[in-house]
Amino acid sequence: MHFGAVPLTKDGRLSAKEVIGNKKALTEFQDRYNQFINERGFQLERGESKLVTQKKHQDMDQYKQGTKYHETVFYQAKKK
């Protein structure tokens, strides 16, 4: 599930830092949200922290190279 929000301050400015805080605060918010939803009968699973998985972010180009994205798109287009 994805949740979209616009971090507006009380005076109408955009400021994720003021509304959400830092990465730790965001993680804590996501944990509380997951608990809140599950207490109301839904069965959502929270993803594992990258501290646990030790995974590192890849930029889009690295991801596409690793998955051979462009080759797949080319062959799919060729089949049509």
UniProtKB/TrEMBL annotation:
Superkingdom of origin: Bacteria
Recorded GO MF terms: DNA binding
InterPro entries: Mob_Pre (IPR001668)
GO biological process: DNA recombination
CDD domains per record: MobM_relaxase (cd17242)
Family, as annotated: Belongs to the plasmid mobilization pre family.
The protein's name in its UniProt record: Recombinase
